[in-house]
Amino acid sequence: MSFTPDIQAFCCHYTSQQTLAEGKEGLKEDGMPENVTLNRLVCTGKLQVSTLLKAFEDGADGVYVAGCPADTCHNVKGSQRAAKRVAAIKKALSELDVEPERIEMFHLERGFHPEFIEAAQVMNKRITELGPCPLKGEKK
Amino acid sequence: MIIAERKPINEIVNMVSDAKKILLLGCRGCVTVCSAGGEREVEILSSLIKLGMQKQGKSVEIIEGTLVRQCDKEYIDSIEQWKGQYDAIVSMACGVGVNFIANLMPSTRVYPAVNTSFFGGSADQGVWTEQCAGCGDCVLHLTGGLCPVARCAKSLMNGPCGGSVDGRCEIHPDVECIWQSIHDRLGRTGNADAMKAIAPIRDWSTAGHGGPRKTLRDDLTV
Ligand code: SF4
Ligand code: SF4
After folding, report:
1. Which residues contact A66 (CB under 8 A, 6 or more apart)?
2. 3-state secondary structure (DSSP) of residue A29
3. Quick check: B20 contacting A, CB < 8 Å?
4. Which candidate, B24, B42, B33, places its Cα nearest to that of B2?
5. Cα B154–B157–B158 angle (5° rounding)?
6. Alpha carbon of B153 to those of B4, B120, B134, B156: distances in Å?
7. Best label site of A136, A140, B63, B161, fewest CB within 10 Å?
């Protein structure tokens, strides 16, 4: 049976400029999977662990965060903080016997870069292979 | 402050696996400061418990609350506001909080969400280290302000032992030999003679070896 994962992406203002400039249609043309929902933030450093967990509670199969390169974040350490929070959730997922790869941190250059689309494609491929998130319950 | 750390999430989920409604209680005291059991951690654990239960095909309702302290009767009494709305309490306070709930609410199921670890301080952002063991008969005036009970692996009263090498403890190269530091400090503070004093055999009854301890301040009781 084919499976289209629900993927929630949390991107900072700087890494997701492309979305604003190109709009939904433009992104689709670039190869952005339609099942990836973009949630834009001023800075990924603002992202709380509870917000990322809420995405799983709301039914996400995979979640990722796209922030600035670790050493050149617009807000100095914002993307480093986000990476630590993502790591904390990876640990919690492992404790629950759920694949930690269901959440990922990407450090991307600002502006218009194909890597922004690539990150979405990487996650889409990965989560499609993993299948539905076990946190949604064992529906038998 | 009391330093604690959240238990692995699956351990907590297993404790409450038959509960349908949980009152998840944080504490605004020490565990808020060491980021183990304050309001923010309550929010996170609430999500994790729901996800863990959902994974097992169960659903659970969670009421989130954070008390000013869980080590005071008056705040524990305020749990009354949620009466009848839960079938188990999960406390994110230190062990004192869990015990207080158990003492004061005889028929309520209560579970610990954290491992209470030690009395310590924040050495750096996100790093806490043990400083005192609450031995009940403080000797810091004799040891340059550095605690041999909590910070020497052997709780020696006359150190260092033969395992002290280059200021490091024999248990691990990352661990400072506190007795080396005590001697260094006594020397630097013009108190070198104190190093020659031999501490007598200690009475550990104040340290909990004589059973649970209690402090009674008559001037504060009416
Ligand atoms: S001597 Fe006892 S009371 Fe003093 S710091 Fe050490 S453990 Fe704490
Ligand atoms: S090396 Fe120092 S800190 Fe370690 S056990 Fe010996 S005296 Fe104590």
Report:
1. A9, A10, A11, A12, A15, A16, A44, A106, A107, A108, A116, A119
2. helix
3. no
4. B33
5. 100
6. 20, 15, 15, 8
7. A140
Options 3.40.50, 1.10.1660, 1.10.238, 3.30.870; CATH for A7-130 is 3.40.50
The SS3 assignment for A80 reads helix
Encode pLDDT of B190-202 as tens digits: 999 999 999 999 9
Q: What ipTM did this prediction achieve?
A: 0.90
Residue B199 CA, ligand 2 centroid: distance in Å: 16
Among A46, A48, A49, the strongest candidate for a mutation testing the B interface, having the largest count of B CBs within 10 A, is A49
Provide CB contacts within 8 A for B215, sequence distance 6+.
none
A54-110 residue pLDDT tens: 999 999 999 999 999 988 888 889 999 999 999 999 999 999 999 999 999 999 988
Exposure of A47 by Cβ count < 10 A (0-12 exposed, 13-18 middle, 19+ buried)?
Answer: buried
* C-alpha dihedral (B113, B117, B121, B125), degrees to nearest 10: -60
Distance from the Cα of B1 to chain A's closest Cα (Å) equals: 24
Q: What angle do CA B190, B192, B197 make, to 5 degrees?
A: 135
Walk me through the domains of chain B, giving residue ranges and CATH numbers.
2-117 (3.40.50.2300), 133-203 (no CATH)
Amino acid at A112: F
Q: Pick the residue of B51, B56, B64 with the most A CBs within 10 A to test the interface with A by mutation.
A: B51
CA distance to partner chain B, nearest, from residue A137 (Å): 4
Q: What's the pTM value of the predicted model, to 2 decimals?
A: 0.92
Mutate which of B147, B151, B154, B166 for ligand 2 pocket (most atoms within 8 A of beta carbon) = B154
Tell me the residues of A at the B interface, defined by beta carbons under 8 Å apart.
Answer: 48-50, 53-54, 56-57, 92, 95-98, 134-140
Classify B222 as helix, strand or coil.
coil
